[in-house]
Design goal:
Length: 139
């Protein structure tokens, strides 16, 4: 039984899994949107939300903690200069997951993980454009 087992293992060793999460969160911060499988996105969302909460403090200890959990100093700088100030009024839920369907090769459930301040992905953007077009027609 899996009582109180929080993290998925993804068939990887502990070190490999930790580096996978560091890499996903670092790339999410740098690109503000990444395409990955649904289980990986759900785990990366937990880590990304925690690191944004740390970055909102903005002090030196928070910067050092973020630097230890990210792979790139540019990601730390972007996190503290752009992302954390944009999220200062939010109390949580800094990321969103948008499902894209299954991958052709292995039928894995794919999704886009992005910050809520980022623009909508292509599928969500089309819906928004259609609603704006219908609103213009009504006027």
């Amino acid at each position: 039984m899996r009582h109180q087992r929080v993290m998925k293992k993804f068939g990887r060793s502990t070190e490999h899994r930790r580096m996978l999460m560091k890499s996903l969160v670092t790339n999410l911060i740098l690109a503000e949107s990444i395409k990955t499988t649904l289980p990986k996105a759900k785990e990366a969302r937990k880590a990304a939300d925690k690191i944004v909460t740390v970055a909102k403090k903005g002090d030196l200890a928070a910067r050092r903690l973020a630097a230890s959990r990210l792979l790139d100093p540019k990601a730390v700088q972007k996190l503290f200069d752009k992302i954390a100030p944009a999220m200062k009024d939010r109390r949580g839920g800094y990321t969103r997951i948008v499902k894209l369907g299954t991958r052709r090769g292995d039928a894995a459930e794919m999704c886009v993980l992005q910050f809520v301040t980022a623009a909508e992905p292509a599928a969500g953007g089309d819906v928004k454009k259609e609603s704006e077009a219908t609103a213009k027609e009504v006027k």
